[in-house]
Amino acid sequence: MRLLQRYTPRLSNSALFLIALLAVFLYFTLRNIGLYPTVFGDEWSYSSFTRLMPFRDTQVPSYLFYTVYRLTNFCGDGYLECARLINAVFFVGAAPFIYLIARQYMTRQMAIVIAVLAILTPSNTYTGYFMPEAMYFWGFWVFSWSVLRGLGRVDVRSVMLSSAVLGLLAMVKVHALFLIPGYVVYLAYATFAQRGASGNWRWLRQALLLVAVALATAAVVRLAVGYLYAGRNGLYLLGTIYSNQAQARPALGVLIRLALVSLQGHLMALVLMFGMPLAAAALQCASRKQRHGAARGSSTLLAYAALMIPSLVAVTALFTALVAGGGNESGVRLHMRYYDFALPLLLILAGAQLVTQRPGVAWRGRLAVALPLLAAMWAASRYLIPGYTPNHIDSPTLFGMVHDGGSYQALIGFSVAAVLLWVASTRLAARWFVYIVIPVTLIISGDNVNLYARIAQRPDAYVKAGLFAHQYLTQEEAKRLTIVGNDMANLFKSRFFVDNVDVSLLLLAPGQPITLASLAHPNGWLLVVGDYPLPEGAVRHSGFREYTLARVKPPAEARLHRFAETEDDSMRSTGLSFMEDWGRWSEGGQVALTFAQPLPKQLLLRLDVAAYGPNTGMDFEVTIGGQTVPLRADGSHGVKELRFSTDGTARAITIKIPKPTSPQELGFGGDQRKLGIGLYSMETIDAAAPRP
């Protein structure tokens, strides 16, 4: 053992930190590989805005996010996997900034532990989505570092730096605007805290100056850069999507009631997850003695956390009330992803409890704070579930905790034990919380969330349909595609894989007929997921059990047949090779086309054809109802017209090939098919009918 210790190099803290971050990055990458998208229509919106649209036309002004993630266009059809790699880089990249903040209040080892735990929270599942959450997580911690560096001291230069970061962060995700109220109040507090011993009101003038500098800097950066990206459209702070949501206001009484219901759910979740650091924060806020005994500079950390997290929670509750009041979703849905990026601040506060300068409040004072908190934890354990509905997207950590009832109760017990230990010893409670409660919670919750996320490894019918249409249709054809199904979220999923912004969606009840009048493109394409009667004249290009791709042909176009399309019941053929993206080659000495309905007596046959090899310039014999007309085709395709007079009962067209020849015979590879004529399209026209 001594020999092993002697010759094994001791790794520095920096090396251990780097190894841990690389391991976490590898974990994110391997977990996310092969997952199909699940968050619709957010993932579709951000993917299409990023990759398929100019900046000025995007409905959300996340221009910096679009700039970085537009690199995924270099990945072809693998753009989603590339976006996930970039997500993982940003999420792991936040850890050094969390470490730099935490290091001001605790030892290097503890700061490393806090930083690694912060990126291992189940909210790291956001790295699997084509959404700005991962980049925003990184940006928030860059902003927080710019605010809290130097133990949170503020001056004009530091405020200009942090405000510029905030202005840029608003172009990653517009929700950065919700950081402004807490940030402005923090600047006033920090100015007051560093006012010195004079005790006069000069600090207020300085605070007003710093607030003005902050708002002006953030506004100039946001508006100037936004204008450079999108012109006048870049000056809109929220974009059209969020502006429309903000305008949908329910009655004031309904709004207040729904907001309070949502706020209650968020508070119950927070006291269950972070009881001990919340108790420590409450006591430090209430007691000057406790603040003086805390780690040096931790009062500014406490002020920042106490301003940022509650303001974000309040805005989230108000947003939920606005959306729920408009009837778009349930008011008991907990959108914790709108503030969970800031929750590692509570981890840092917990770790700071291990560093004390002098004794703080005695155990009786801590007990006075702990008792109401324990009562709140008891109430939350009873009423949070099933009163609220956390899910793996909006509130992944809480979802993972409650997914298994037995584990949920055990985790609550661990959290309660941390509060009870805090009454006896703040240092012991901090160790219990950081080294036991948080890791156990992350393991159990993260495993449950990962199991749920891995369900997305299996493609459903909507995924399969979208993938098939993306590969089968050209981009021009996809512009005239309508996707039909009975679930709007899943229709977004199919459109995500078709990957075209012009695709239309049609929501129909199962079995309801599809009419031409309901289609945005009555002469386009249909991707039907489920069992629906197709419009008359539609030509199936796939007829699988779960979905159907069809070409829509209105009655006026029914006489036109494109040979690149699957044959329908109106015509059957022999003597043709397989379909290609342009049409079909003849194979052998004769082509026979048999129609379900008789051909017109006075027939104008319009063919778009090309001759192969030695057949160029030779006569093909086209026979209908006993009448034969020669057809001479060129080497490149062109339209030829032939006229026939029949008795009105003819149903077949035959084309005799003068010299069937294989590419192999001409020295062009190993293709042994005997080719003669290439058929692009055919139109059967009644020449006796009045022309429009």
Automatic annotation (TrEMBL):
Stretches assigned to the DUF7024 domain: 556-683
The record's keywords, sorted A to Z, are: Membrane, Transmembrane, Transmembrane helix
Annotated signal sequence range: none
Question: Which residue ranges run through the membrane?
Answer: 12-30, 85-102, 114-139, 159-186, 207-230, 250-280, 301-324, 336-355, 367-385, 405-425, 432-453
InterPro entries of this UniProt entry? DUF7024
A Pfam family matched by this chain, by name?
Answer: DUF7024
Name of the protein this chain belongs to: DUF7024 domain-containing protein
